[in-house]
Amino acid sequence: MRESILAAAIQLFAEYGYHAAPLRDIARIAGIQAASIYHHYPNKQSLLVEIMTTYMQQLNRQIEHILSEYDEPVERLQQAITNHIHLHTRYKAEFFIIDTEIRSLEAENRLNIISLRDRYDELLQELLRDGMERGIFRQSDVKVTSYAIIAMCTEVATWFRSGGRLTVQQVIDIHCQMIMQGLLIDQEATLKQRGLS
Questions:
Q1: What is the pLDDT of residues 59-93, one digit of tens each?
Q2: Left if phi > 0, otherwise alpha if psi is -120 to 50, otherwise beta: which for 65?
Q3: Residue 126 CB contacts under 8 Å (≥ 6 apart), including other chains
Q4: Rounded to 5, what percent of the chain is helix, strand, coil?
Q5: What is the DSSP letter of 138?
Q6: How far apart are CA 160 and CA 96, in angstroms?
């Protein structure tokens, strides 16, 4: 039942926005009485918090895994780009809610979600900084570079359509190539070696 309630909340929050999605409509889509929601969630805010926490934690766990499993900076970055685009195209509604509804969170909840988002930024910046220190990525402002990569990869979810002209993997390859061309010191050799040129 919790899954049905959560799925209904995701649908309505993404379509109409948090404030315009009443609990009674969430209950109707979930196929239950409005009062039954309170057996599972204390209020509407707790639904929003669970959506955001679940998917931000998943994003963070994946990049932590990439940093621990892979050592080579180019491979790490390719994996991070791949993961970000895969999650944002697979869970479009959930990440749209994360990106647009932080303003709807109450104070403490907002701080918790922002700390999860900041953690993701820090991990990507750690990956980039390591590549720069090893002389593989060109020196640039790590924060600005991380924000640019996140913005590019997140934006895919707004225009990508499954079954369209390109597959998700083709879109990932294009993004990897563009980002690597901007970052790599010895572009030509590395891109050829990785089949991205």
A1: 999 999 999 999 999 999 999 999 999 999 999 99
A2: alpha
A3: 67
A4: 80, 0, 20
A5: P
A6: 13
